[in-house]
Request: fold
Amino acid sequence: MVADQNDRGGTQFRCGHRQEPETGERGHDGDEKNIAHPTDARLYERARRQLVALAAEAGLTLRQNYNRLAPRLARQVGRYAHARQFKRMRKALKKLKGYTGRVLRDIRRQLDDIPAGALRERVLDMLVLIGGLLQQGPKSSGKIYALHEPQVDCISKGKARQRYEFGTKVSITTTIDDGFVLGTRSFPGNPYDGHTLAPALEQVAILTGETPELAVVDRGYRGHGVTTTRVLISGMRRGLTPTLARLLRRRSAIEPEIGHMKTDGRLARCPLKGLIGDAIFAVLCGCGHNIRKILAHLRELWLLILLLASCSRKINWRRALENCPA
Reply:
């Protein structure tokens, strides 16, 4: 959101969405996690390698670890897909999945040989995680897209260049005129945009100590259900005064702010682990964005001071020449 102090002393906000999170504007975007693009072949092969490594650490003897066959087959799946030989690709993928399942069942049979402790807990957690990976289908809910980040969500972008992002939805609230960030909040589970407006406004009220009077959002927030703050949605025509119409036109100003947070503030990809890492990273990116804007204003002020000082010295020099005796 974007916040702005108007002449009446009220706080105004704008809202929007970014697809890791204004008074005036609010935006959402997907804060991508630091994971590779998920494919079945890559996930099955990584799962098998992690199971083999855990078995070696626990001192288990596997019937077969497929260290030679599985990597070769995983590469072959990609070649078949590139050549559009999908029947062969599905056959190879099924075989690769079978390799991972065999290693999983082999370790499960030898669980009693692992003494109680941290290692046994790690093995059990990995067995549960990879078991869910092997059971999920193309349309399963709560799919696993990365073994080291199982909470990652698939966020549909609807863009030709990048149809999907894998991460967590982040809400960003900024001021309308200046673009200072008032709040950033992560929303795991890929909720509907309208359902994130109330928590975002609540965060702004907590951080600023002032309840927003006006929020300007895009059409993705229809059905938000917020009653404590007046919400303007892009495309509204009825009941708009010239002042409100001007503020509504400023809604899109949050988009370049989000772009700068992605490129300059590294919001495009979250390197911190887990849901807590998503929340911390979003807040840190908002703080960094505000600091960069403050430094930019201070830089302009310092240049103005230097310019005035330089002009003053030139004027004094001319006066000194005029007053110099012949």
Remarks:
- The chain has two domains: 4-34+153-289, 40-135.
- The CA atoms of residues 184 and 282 lie 6 Å apart.
- The longest strand covers residues 164-175.
